[in-house]
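User: Hi! I'm working on a homework problem where we have to compare a predicted structure to a textbook description. Could you give me the structure for the chain below?
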Amino acid sequence: MIQKIFGWLLLLAGVAIIFYSLYASFNIFTGANPAPEIFSRASLEEKETILITEKSHDIEAQMEQIIGEQLKGILPFGSLPTLLDLTAWSIFAGILIFSGAQIAGLGIKLLKS
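Assistant: Happy to help. Predicted structure tokens:
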């Protein structure tokens, strides 16, 4: 009897973990909640201001500045950390779903026996 109760608890816990990760992912990808900030944007902004204030008469430095300005037009500033944050959350949500499925599987095995 205790085995059946424990099986039901594991099954419910696994399903709850799966539904929580799906619900949280849905909220993040629809914009209701922000993604957890893992990759810092502040350090990128500091580097940006250093590059702008730093004046160099070197042709190499001028070329790097021109290429940097062109890249800003193609890839908006701050989009890379956001993309990395969303990728990290997707990996974490995948791990949560997998672990929830394993826990629910253990619960089902206990219920069958």
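For your comparison, note the following. The two ends are 11 Å apart (CA to CA). Residues 2-112 form one domain. Good luck with the assignment!
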